[in-house]
Amino acid sequence: MPTLPGDPAWWSLVLFVLPLLMGAPIGMALGVASIAACWLWDMGLPMISYNFYANVAKFPLLAIPFFIMAGVIMERAGIARRIIDLVEALVGEMPGGLAVATVLVATFWGAVSGSGPATVAALGLILIPGMAQAGYDKAFAAATVSVSSGLAIIIPPSIAFIVYGVITETSIGALFAAGVLPGLVMAFCLAVAVFLVSRRRGYRGSKSYSLSEKWSAFRRAFWGLLAPAIILGGIYGGVFTPTEAAAVAVFYGLFVGFFVYRTLSLRDLHEILVSTTISTAVVMLVVACAGLFSWVGSTVGLMDKASTFVLSISRDPVAIMLLVNVVLLLAGMVLDAVSIYYVFLPIFMPIMRYFGWDPVWFGVIMTINLAIGQVTPPVAVNLYVGSNISGVSIERISVAALPLIAASVVALLICILFPSISTVLPSRLGLM
Question: Mean per-residue pLDDT for 225-244?
Answer without folding.
Answer: 81
